Amino acid sequence: MRLGLMRFLGMRAVVMGAVRGTFAGAKRLRVLARGGGPALLWRAVLTAALVGAIGLLPWLSRTDPALTVLKARAADRDPTPEALGAVRAELGLDDGPLHLLGRWLGGLPHGDAGTSWVSGSEVLPGVVQAFGVSLLLMSGALAVAALTAAAVCARTLRLGARRRLGAHRPGGSAAAVLAALPEFLVASVLASVIGVQLGWLPALGWYGPRWMVLPSLALGLPAGAVLGRMLDDLLPGAFAEPWASAAAARGIPAASLARQAVRRCVPGLLPNLGLFVVGLTGGSVAVEQIFDIPGLGRLTLHAALAQDLPVLQTGTLALLLLAAAAGLLARLAARPLIGPALRAGALHSLHRPAPPAPRALPLLYAALLAGVIGLGLPRDPLALDTFARLQAPSPAHPFGTDALGRDVLARVAHGALTTLGTALAVSAAALVAGLLLGLLPRLSGPMADTVSAVPPALAGLLAAGVAGTGPWTPAFAVGVVAWAPLATHASALLRQERATTHLAATRALGAGRWYLLRRELLPAVLGPVTRHALLRLPGIALGLAALGFLGLGAQPPSPEWGLLLSENRPYAERAPWALLFPAAVLALLGALAVTAAGGVRLPGRRGRPAGRTGPPPQPSRPVVPRQSPGRPGPLPAPATAPAPASASPTDER
């Protein structure tokens, strides 16, 4: 009887635990639904607008879809009026885009996404298969990105856990260089060196686990460098919080302290991780092309170029659903990671308590970049010399020559004028838009998820349809999507900053919204988001030039950097200098952008002394800010300075 009673009580405990878990999950979903009802409606509107714009793509681009589909089916077939008329009648193009879109939407509830305009096969099975391939590749790339991010943050974690962080500057130049390398360049080097020359791993196809190693490395290394740099930027603030000092004073192991610091910082990166998931699934077009992978990015690219609307609409809808699911999971995962402090307003600010000591390393990078541009500008970037094709570096040609005998140094220098100028303008506009939209997460969250789900090729085609082809079309296309990760980063940091204790105290004393925004919130997120924008500057420069291949921007013989890398990629084995020197200059730009974010100091000047992890001591007298008429000011500073975070256990006691 006693045994039966114990079993009954055990089963009762299990059932009650399951019921409590179910109610907790339902309550969490209800809270999410209350807060996300307008956001859900806004997301539906954006999805409908994007799908409708894709349905209008042939008409927006002012091209004949029948001609494009006919060329995609058989490139050598003559586009006679009879052949074009047969294609229009078969596809129903004369009925107009609204009728085609309505027919496609009507079949979706029944699991029918139509048939491909090019191959004539069912769309849904092909998209599901390509989506599965891209998800598998994305999982491998995320594993590589996690290992890369851990390597980037290893030194900061080791020093912070041992309370010896001091004035260590997070985010070294190596991470900036790795993040600046384009994915197709990393993929080309891995395929030619490891896959072809050394023969260690297969370089083409998709037949098993060994075939996903090189593509995962090509996608995961740059993404991991960006994520690692963002995490490394937040870790000093986590190690400077009081809990870290108390844990170190009580003798908590360094490994446990490092794990808790990572857990403290990860919620601020989860929304950007969701964007990376969508970008690695649908935006890995170049990597899938190089390694011949039948993924969703490659499928949508071919469908966009062939104007195969059923395939393009179905693939984009799959990416939009993935973006919505990733955003929802990121928001749900942030609460258990932070704990009840987010709801109770008991967090401490994660922004850096004191600016790091600047250094002179950016001056070196700037001097090298200026020297390369200055040496190459007097040279002619368009001069052809067929007798000097693919020549190695020499005094006459310091960077060698390309396949047409043109001087690579001259082309790199002249391409820097247009590429860097446009990239800086787009980056500045994206930073301003990201900060402003980050203040409105319910508005910008669905927008960021939507634009991140659009493959780059499709974004360029839609931009060309709206703005027309011209020199500023690539800038418009890249700028439309460049703000999304910055706004997501800003909104994630602002969400935690609003739950800090000092903000609650300042609000309790009567500070208005404008004062809180100007004096507390914006200073807390401006630094990390600006460094994030600088980290993405080289990628924006490449994205601008890469759209030239779609006829949307610069065309050969323009010396833009993206065109240089793509034109010289087929000659990587015969003339590696034609590819490595432009890539090295691009990596130099990334290192300059990231290191310059912390400031510049001339050699010989002394910075703030190291040895502190926490904020500098406060003045002995309280500083009372000037109050505006009719509005109370914030709480005065305490008269005693807080103890340094690097204090010994005896000092803590």
How would you describe this protein?
The protein is mainly α. It is built from 27 helices and no strands. Helix 9 runs antiparallel to helix 23. Mean pLDDT is 77; it is low at 5-9, 11-15, 21-35 and 604-653.
How is this structure best summarized?
The chain has 27 helices and no strands. It has 653 residues and is mostly helical. The two termini are 54 Å apart.
Overall pLDDT level: 77
Low-confidence stretches: 5-9, 11-15, 21-35, 604-653
Radius of gyration of CA atoms, rounded to a whole number: 28 Å
The percentage helix is 55-70%
Number of helical elements: 27
What is the CA-CA span between the terminal residues? 54 Å
Global morphology = globular
Structural class, by secondary structure, is: mainly alpha
Please summarize the sheet with the most strands.
none
Outline the fold blueprint:
Blueprint: H1 2-55, H2 57-60, H3 65-73, H4 81-91, H5 97-107, H6 123-161, H7 173-180, H8 183-197, H9 213-239, H10 242-249, H11 254-265, H12 270-282, H13 285-290, H14 296-306, H15 309-338, H16 341-344, H17 361-376, H18 408-438, H19 441-452, H20 456-467, H21 473-497, H22 501-508, H23 513-535, H24 537-546, H25 561-568, H26 577-595, H27 649-652
Helix pairs in contact: 1-15, 1-19, 3-4, 6-9, 6-11, 6-12, 6-15, 7-9, 7-26, 8-9, 9-11, 9-23, 12-15, 12-21, 14-15, 15-19, 17-18, 17-26, 18-21, 18-23, 18-24, 19-21, 20-21, 21-23, 21-24, 23-26, 24-25, 25-26
